Amino acid sequence: MSEPKFRLDGRTALVTGARSGIGRACALALAASGADVLCWGRAGDVGSTAAEVRALGRQSWAVGVDLADPDSSAAEVGRLLAEHRVDVLVNNAGIIRRAPAIGTTLRDWRDVLAVNLDAAFLLAGLVGRQMLANRWGRIINMASVLSFQGGILVPAYAASKHGLAGLTKALANEWAADGVTVNAIAPGYIRTENTAPLRADPVREPAVRGRIPVGDWGEPEDVAAAAVFLASPAARYVNGQVLIVDGGWLAR
Predict the structure, then answer these.
(1) pTM score, two decimals?
(2) Which residues are catalytic?
(3) How far apart are CA 112 and CA 117, in angstroms?
(4) Of the four listed, 59, 102, 119, 170, which is most buried by Cβ atoms within 10 Å?
(5) Residue 103, domain extent
(6) How far apart are CA 115 and CA 5, in angstroms?
């Protein structure tokens, strides 16, 4: 995306879960559009993505903090904001625990919500405060088609993604008048580590693929293109939306 309205020159983005999959693709796509990128992951696992961003000619820094630890995360965000103006926040990090509802422990439930929803709320609030002071910002939350459906054997994940869609709309209502838009992307079935068990399942894989009108699983880069759009000046008037990138899954 080289058109001026899709450029992010002079901007700095913070992308969580940037080690692989959708997060890595978002970091690289934002960098290719001109942004410097703070790559957030757990300790020691995002250096390779930061190196790839630098290879594109942009500045990049690796951040190694577990988002399940709110105190450490808040301290790290404070340090980052003291050193950087963060213009774009991509709340991408997420985990999934597959089990029937009656087999899902309260610990598993809380672990999933801590990363998928609590951390997104925490980072949005901390980074959003700086954005509001600057009167410009883009927050992009990584929702899911399970923001609209219940899924199978993933009750905590579905609940977290429903919550993230609601949080997106709530923040969008509060902050847009001060120059900060808040949107979400709802990926469908994308080739990532999280979907590896489904893609390896001889029954579920063809059932999933057969329902997608495009006829195939999506790639992380398909989602990253949407993130670049929502972060760019081209999306100035897009706010409070959950942009579905699913090959037509939800249209069936």
Answers:
(1) 0.96
(2) 157
(3) 8
(4) 119
(5) 4-242
(6) 32
